Amino acid sequence: MKYLTIALAKGRLAEISMDLFEKIGLDCSEMRKKSRKLIFTDEKNKVKFILVKASDVPTYVEYGAADIGVVGKDTLLEEGRNLYEMIDLGVGKCRMCVCGPEKMRSQLSTTNNLRVASKFTNIARNYFFREKGRTVEIIKLHGSVELAPLVGLSEVIVDIVESGKTLQENGLCVLETICDISARFVVNRVSMKMERERILEIVSKMKAVMDTEEG
């Protein structure tokens, strides 16, 4: 039996994912030990886990280096990879929003040459160009996007909002919600054909755990 490879996003989402996988009987003990390893094996269940940067999870899965991935919906929307999205795991919940100073609320639809700063340039572009039919200038940032409206780099930002505390502390607020975000269970299209039974078994166990917890 070949190993099923599961790509997990490094950090908090990996921790949440491990909890879920352990509940369905997979062994994540090797991964929980502090080390610099990036590949971990559950010999009993013939599963390999690989730890990668969140934005790389869809790439590993699309190209078949991983059969399965757990990644945020924000990354899936931004990367636009050709995958099966099997389950909304309902964890890591937040929102993708257009944010800015309160005064921009009434000016958002009328400002010409609106500048939008974001790490999520594809999401921002799709939202303004396709959904709203607006021509805007998208500015790519890698760090704290909240700074952009404060120093005049942009009028608004597109970013992930959890509690909204960081926005508040910087005098910004949510102007529009683009979509809800949470962790998703994704599968490579070829793997779904070749390893259908094993993958669907994991999916059904995951759903059962989620139903139990919700109940």
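Above is the first protein from milestone M3; the second protein from the same milestone is given next.
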Amino acid sequence: MATKQEQELDEQTPYTDLVEHTPKINQQLARYGVKFGIYKDGTFNERLFPFDAIPRVIEASTWKSLEAGLIQRVRALNLYLADVYGDRQIIADGVVPEDFAFASSGYLPQCEGITPPGGIYSHISGIDLVEGQDGTWYVLEDNLRIPSGASYPLIARGLCRRCDAGTFRTTPIVDNRDYGTRLKAVMDSVNTGGANVILTPGRYNAAYFEHAYLSEKADAILAEPKELFVENETLFYRDAGRNLRVGALYRRLSDEYLDPLCFCADSLIGVPNLMSAYRAGNVAIINAPGNGAADDKGIYYFVPKMVKYYLGEEPILKNAPTYLPFYPDDMAYVQEHADTLVIKDVAEAGGYGVVFGSELEPEKLNDLKTLIRREPRRFIAQEVIDFKRLPTYIGGKLVPRKADLRAFVLSGAETTVWPSGLTRYSRVEGSAVVNSSQGGGFKDTWVLSR
């Protein structure tokens, strides 16, 4: 006799043919090298990024609202970046405190006064959302530096279509195969004259598969730093027998490693004088250096205020209820309710630095509260959102697992949302940590056309 939970899962899972093909699809993903590399204890480990063929399905009306909210949010974030590296009017008007904005580890003084080609800072934004049990969607994070993940649902959708073409003929799913075309359009829109290049640190980067895959889909050159050089404030790619000018550089390495003459002097994977070419307006860097000033977890608190300030609109998407220990009232609340909150270190990413107060022993919880009092700018605290669990096949069984959604917003001549996304799920029962770097798996995201 099936349990109530099993019956509910079965009702949510009509894609039985896809489920049957899951092992075959994962074999194909492994063959294509769809892996995710993880550095742990000084060692690089590479593993298959586990795929579950049961998709997340989003109704057309829901997607329309999400799309509007995502575009609104990214527009405001781009305006904030232009402002904070320019006139700083939002700070002068007291919307974002000065000592809070410039205390962000992602704020780079080297980027002050630089206006990127097209005035766009975040060309590819990865916005992480969860759906609450009541159907309300909440933004958990804004990723504006080098968000990864678009390649995984892109290739998985293609493999699923091959295995079960019938499902895709009879289900009104919006096609997601145009991501490469969208990415190329963004690069073309800000290109200063020359080739489009995707800069990868190399084979041992965690997302190397994605770098190579997207370079093919976007018809861009895949280059390592040693293949690039700057001359007369112009970036070039060392092609066979000639030097090719680069007009748009989609970089897939962190700010601090981009240019050893500007940032980290001992970086071996940077391009010397890249920032001089960028400052001169001779190359577009995608995403712009310094974007960490806007996707700092502490700055996240102010994004709804940015929407109102820059756009004069009410935010369509909600933040998770968030507290800044930076403010005395919020500090008092966090100290009193730490055992019910999730505490996040604003400088961490990939699921690291996230602590659930309810999981700590009293002594550890007190130590954390002391650390928050000592370093209030370092942390934010959020109410724990009971977000939806999705039916997932693990170990041959249908089980519920918590899942988030990374939506991809592309900003070029216009701002659009790719009608797909990376749904990440936890492989551990009861866990709310879904990050791939923490052992999570992924699903495709189907947006229905009607």
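Note on the second protein: DSSP finds 15 helices and 21 strands in the chain.
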